[in-house]
Amino acid sequence: MQRHHFAFIVATVATLGSLYFSEIMLFLPCKLCWFQRIFMYPLAIYYLTIMLTARDVNRLFVGIMAGAGWCISLYHVILERIPNGEAFCTNDCLIRWVNYFGFVTIPLLSFIAFTCILIIQFVPFKKA
Fold this sequence. Notes:
This protein is an all-alpha fold. 66% of the residues lie in helices and 0% in strands.
């Protein structure tokens, strides 16, 4: 398996997870969640087309999409962690629909997914 196969798995799980939370569990995504989706969904589709057409990954596209999503998700995580974070939020972006283990929230899951994609795609690995 190549790197983009693993990135495809991460992006697809993140996409299906966000759809599960909004469509099955009926959690209402805030504006920050929508922006994160805007950057994650195309990555899943892009990696699928890369795998089906056997083309090389456009690292600039992946870097822009995953980097922008990473920045938004980092902001969202910081916003929900700081005291009085609601002063900076105008649209219910601090509702914790999910709180696994007392700290794993939906924005943190998004942050982890974007981080994994960036690591998979850009960190050089030594060949054995």
